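Reagents: none. Just compute today. MSP domain-containing protein.
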Amino acid sequence: MALRIEPSTAEFPEAGGQLQHTVVNASGARIAFKVKCSDNNLFTVRPVFALVDPGQAIGVDVTRKAGIAKQDKLVFQYIEVTAEEHDPQAPFRQPQQYHEVTLPLAVSVSNEP
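Predicted 3D structure written out:
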């Protein structure tokens, strides 16, 4: 797999919170990625778009607001780009076939009253 997310799962408390994940480009090519979320009202992701050089990594912050426990996910769409590409959004303006990696988003439920 050319793109790897570390850690590969995310678990938030019901009260919400913020986690940091690392997007690793394990390929020999430059990659642009875009993050899509199953619930944009509950989650915020920064950055949404980025470029990652071969063998490099970038941090991604995932923030969850307080809310009911439910299963959600982030989908990282990615595509190989040239070294001359400087706009991480540009490859996603035209419909193309993208590779994808999914990050499951879970909620730990407290049994305390």
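The chain has one domain: 3-108.
Action item: order primers for follow-up constructs.
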